[in-house]
């Protein structure tokens, strides 16, 4: 069998992701903060792009000096796009995607972010380690004690518990007896917060009792040291018989124990709260809902007129560089415009599908999938998925992520459907209103849901939703007192 080389022509279609298209797709899924950082990075790298002066109102960049450059280096289609981008009023380009004009909204619809308290502007939160080290330096700790205390503080977890044994810490300090380390640990346990550096919950609570002068009650000390598990499992009657006390006395002891802090370091946790600036605001005005995109702090872009006027290419390399930067600036502005337009259209569609939610709250949330919104606005599901990622909307019922409005469905007896989030909200409401002495079981909750929503929901489904909301079972929610 002979081998031969042969040339052959073949016509195929292939999807190519250009850098510009990749950038546009990336901008869709960026959060508000990430988008601002991306724009600032582009402003630093592209001399043809600049941020419009916030003081300039109703002013568009000049275009008279760009004709020569366009005629030499830009084709007809690019010239048309560039004229559109440079003639756009970027001061108000986000305002196009609003159900009403900003002037008609009035002050009552503005973002309530001006009167922030001083505490909300603090740059950092004190850590548990720094708080304890500060107290040690203000106390009569010797230099040796400070060295030991530094080792002890370094072995605390986020709850304030000591995670290393005295012997392990002694290995880190040469010629340091175990007794000295134990003495420093006991002193640290009495710093603020009291009970920090304890090895167990029992030790933590006993230190707090001793600090309050309550450790002379043998019943109270025994309850804390040996019977916390009995309290957790609501085994109260055996305790009353063992200590020969009444149920009222046991309740007083339980109230006192519950007033103690089992996790003294939790208030100094390093996990900072995440403050969300909504991307969209939805207000109810009369019988209609107004959709306003949040443009506060959003950079307004334009082509730099100085660089455009003096962009006279002297050679091919310079000409290609100028063309590339101008196209990059144009594409970024067009991508931002398209991003805001897509966000507005998706939010408009969500309001149409979930109008009952915006009227009455989460209990009226309907089942919704990405495909329904995509078909409603004429876009692909992947586009809807990207634009709803890390985006938040401020509604009359609170701030929610856009993904929250997409939830699965449960069939009702009449053939209609109800959203799973609505069922979760009703389960949470029922548990919040239950009698603590007779909490509702999962089976009872299912029966109530069947009566109120006419939905057939299994007990295991109720348990799954309850667990997802971090709600304990009925046996652990029961309170005898």
TrEMBL record:
Taxonomy, superkingdom: Bacteria
Record-linked InterPro entries: RNA_pol_sigma_54 (IPR000394), RNA_pol_sigma_54_core-bd (IPR007046), RNA_pol_sigma_54_DNA-bd (IPR007634), RpoN_core-bd_sf (IPR038709)
A GO-annotated cellular component: DNA-directed RNA polymerase complex
Magnesium as UniProt keyword: no
One Gene Ontology MF term: DNA-binding transcription activator activity
Chain segments annotated as coiled-coil in the UniProt record: none
Domain RNA polymerase sigma factor 54 core-binding: 118-307
Key words of the record: DNA-binding, DNA-directed RNA polymerase, Nucleotidyltransferase, Sigma factor, Transcription, Transcription regulation, Transferase
Entry keyword annotation includes ATP-binding: no
GO biological process: DNA-templated transcription initiation
The RNA polymerase sigma factor 54 DNA-binding domain, residue ranges: 320-478
Family classification: Belongs to the sigma-54 factor family.
Protein name as it appears in the record: RNA polymerase, sigma 54 subunit, RpoN/SigL
The organism of origin for this protein: Humidesulfovibrio mexicanus
């Amino acid at each position: 069998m002979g081998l031969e080389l042969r040339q052959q022509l073949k016509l195929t279609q292939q999807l190519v992701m250009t850098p510009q298209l990749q950038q546009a797709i990336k901008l869709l899924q960026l959060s508000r903060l990430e988008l601002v950082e991306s724009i600032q990075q582009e402003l630093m790298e592209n001399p043809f792009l600049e941020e419009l002066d916030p003081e300039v109102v109703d002013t568009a960049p000049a275009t008279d000096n760009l004709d020569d450059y366009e005629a030499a280096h830009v084709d007809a289609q690019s010239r048309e796009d560039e004229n559109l981008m440079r003639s756009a009023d970027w001061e108000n380009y986000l305002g196009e995607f609003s159900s009403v004009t900003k002037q008609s909204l009035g002050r009552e619809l503005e973002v309530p972010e001006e009167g922030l308290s001083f505490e909300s502007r603090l740059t950092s939160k004190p850590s548990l380690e720094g708080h304890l080290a500060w107290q040690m330096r203000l106390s009569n700790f010797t230099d040796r004690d400070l060295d030991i205390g530094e080792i002890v503080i370094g072995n605390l977890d986020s709850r304030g518990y000591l995670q290393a044994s005295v012997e392990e810490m002694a290995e880190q300090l040469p010629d340091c007896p175990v007794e000295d380390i134990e003495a420093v640990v006991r002193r640290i346990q009495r710093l603020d917060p009291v009970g920090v550096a304890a090895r167990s919950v029992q030790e933590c609570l006993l230190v707090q009792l001793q600090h309050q002068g309550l450790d002379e009650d043998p019943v109270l000390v025994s309850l804390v040291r040996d019977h916390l598990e009995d309290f957790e499992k609501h085994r109260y009657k055996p305790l009353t018989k063992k200590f020969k006390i009444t149920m009222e006395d046991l309740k007083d002891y339980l109230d006192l124990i519950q007033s103690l802090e089992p996790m003294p370091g939790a208030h100094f946790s390093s996990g900072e709260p995440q403050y969300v600036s909504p991307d969209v605001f939805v207000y109810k005005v009369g019988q209609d809902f107004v959709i306003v995109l949040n443009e506060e702090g959003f950079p307004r872009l334009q082509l730099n007129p100085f660089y455009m006027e003096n962009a006279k290419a002297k050679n091919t390399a310079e000409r290609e560089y100028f063309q590339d930067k101008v196209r990059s600036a144009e594409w970024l502005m067009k991508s931002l415009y398209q991003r805001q337009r897509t966000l507005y259209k998706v939010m408009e569609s969500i309001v149409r599908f979930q109008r009952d939610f915006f009227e009455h709250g989460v209990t009226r949330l309907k089942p919704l999938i990405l495909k329904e919104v995509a078909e409603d606005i004429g876009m692909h599901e992947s586009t809807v998925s990207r634009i709803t990622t890390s985006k938040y909307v401020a509604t009359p019922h609170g701030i929610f992520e856009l993904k929250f409005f997409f939830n699965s469905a449960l069939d009702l007896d009449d053939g209609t459907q109800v959203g799973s989030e609505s069922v979760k909200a009703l389960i949470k409401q029922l548990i919040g209103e239950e009698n603590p002495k007779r909490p509702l079981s999962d089976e009872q909750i299912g029966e109530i849901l069947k009566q109120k929503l006419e939905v057939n929901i299994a007990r295991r489904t109720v348990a799954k939703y309850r667990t997802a909301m971090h709600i304990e079972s009925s046996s652990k929610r029961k309170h005898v007192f």
